Amino acid sequence: MTVSARLAELGIELPAVAAPVAAYVPAVSHGGLVYTSGQLPFTDGALPATGKVGAAVSADDAKAYARTCALNALAAAADVAGGVDRIAGVLRLGGFVASATEFSGQPGVINGASEVLGEIFGDSGRHARAAVGVAVLPLDSPVEVDVVFILA
Q: Where is the signal peptide (predicted)?
C-alpha cells in the first residue's frame, strides 16, 4: 500500500508545509534521507497552545500536539522528496517538550509523534528516538519534533 493510500485509509490529510520562523528550510534531502527541521504544532498557521507541559498544557494535549508536529514533519519531507509516496519510512525522531519543573512524562508526550508515524508506515515507521525536556521552545510552543525519513 502506498503512503498516500494509507493516509487516506486513516483519514489523515497532511497540512501545508509550515513557513519557517527563522533562517532555515523546513527539510533537506541528502544521501537517501530527508532531514526535517524542528516542527512546531502549527495548525492553520497558528500554535494551538503555548506554555509548559505539566503547568499550562496537559500531557494529553501535548501528546496530540506532538502528533501534529510529526504530520507537519511528514508534509515538509514530502515537499522536498517529490511527494509523500517517495517516503519509505522513519529512521529517527527527536522530541522536545517544554516542561514544568516537576514534569517527567516527556516519553509519553512524544509517543504522539511516534504512534502516528507507526500507524502510517507500519514496521517501516519503527525508529530510534529521543524525548527531551527543555525550559522553553520557540514561540513558547509546548512541543517540537524533528524527523529523519528514509527515501524510497
A: none
Over range 98-102, report the average pLDDT: 97
Verdict on whether the full-model pTM lies above 0.85: yes
Burial of 59 (0-12, 13-18, 19+ CB in 10 A): middle
Place of cell 509517543: 111
Which three three-digit cell numbers place residue 45? Answer: 498557521
- Beta-bridged to residue 33, according to DSSP, are 30, 150
In this structure, are strands 33-36 and 87-98 parallel, antiparallel, or unpaired? Answer: unpaired
Give pLDDT tens digits for 66-82: 999 999 999 999 999 99
Which domains are present in the chain?
3-19+26-151 (3.30.1330.40)
Counts for the chain of helices (H) and strands (E), in that order: 3, 5
